[in-house]
Design goal:
This protein is mostly beta strands. It has one helix at about 1-20, and strands at about 40-45, 60-70, 75-80, 95, 105-110, 125-130, 135-145, 160-165. The strands form two sheets. A five-stranded antiparallel β-sheet has the order 1-2-7-5-4, with no helix packed on it. Strand 4 and strand 5 form a beta hairpin. The chain is elongated. Keywords: Signal.
Length: about 160
C-alpha cells in the first residue's frame, strides 16, 4: 500500500513539473475615447501692410497684406477690418499718424481692382468664407492715394481684425 501511495505521489509531482505552473488569470474590458470638436475660428497671422518709403505722394501707392485664418471644417465665417486708430478714420478713409499728429490717408480693399472697401459691416463690406480645417489666406489690398504730402517721418496705424463665426 505504501508503494501505491508513493507511486501516486510521484505521479502527481511529475504531472505538476511536466505542465509547469498554472497560468495567471486574465480579465478584459474596454475604455471609451472621445473628443468634442466645437466650431472655432482664429486669426493665425497677418503680414504688415507696408507701403515702403516714399517722397511726395503724387500717385497711388499700392501694396498687399495676407491675413491667415483657420476655422473648423464646415464653419462659415466673416472677416472684418476696423477703421484703425487714426483720429477721424473711417473704413473708407483710414489714417496713419506720424510726427505732430499729421496723417497719411489710405484704404484697404477686398478686391485687386481696389473698388470694394474692406470694413466691419456684416453682409456688406466683410470677406466671407467657410472653414475647411486648414489655414486659409485672404489678401488685403492697400492703397495710399495721391494727397498733400505731410512732413517727413514714420506714419503708422493699427487695424483690428475680427473673425465672426
Amino acid at each position: 500500500m505504501l508503494k501505491l501511495l508513493r507511486a501516486a505521489a510521484i505521479a502527481v509531482l511529475l504531472g505538476t513539473v511536466a505542465t509547469g505552473p498554472a497560468p495567471a488569470a486574465t480579465a478584459t474590458g474596454n475604455m471609451n475615447v472621445r473628443i468634442t470638436i466645437q466650431a472655432e475660428c482664429k486669426v493665425v497671422t497677418a503680414t504688415d501692410l507696408d507701403f515702403g518709403t516714399r517722397g511726395v505722394i503724387d500717385a497711388n501707392v499700392d501694396q498687399t497684406s495676407t491675413i491667415s485664418v483657420q476655422c473648423t471644417n464646415g464653419t462659415p465665417y466673416t472677416v472684418g477690418l476696423n477703421a484703425g486708430n487714426g483720429a477721424g478714420a473711417t473704413v473708407a478713409v483710414r489714417r496713419m499718424t506720424g510726427p505732430a499728429s499729421a496723417t497719411v490717408n489710405y484704404a484697404i480693399y477686398r478686391d485687386a481692382a481696389r473698388t470694394q472697401v474692406w470694413g466691419v459691416t456684416a453682409g456688406g463690406d466683410v470677406v466671407s468664407g467657410t472653414g475647411n480645417g486648414n489655414v486659409q489666406n485672404l489678401t488685403a489690398y492697400g492703397r495710399v492715394p495721391p494727397q498733400t504730402t505731410p512732413a517727413a517721418g514714420v506714419y503708422s496705424d493699427i487695424v483690428a481684425i475680427t473673425v465672426t463665426y
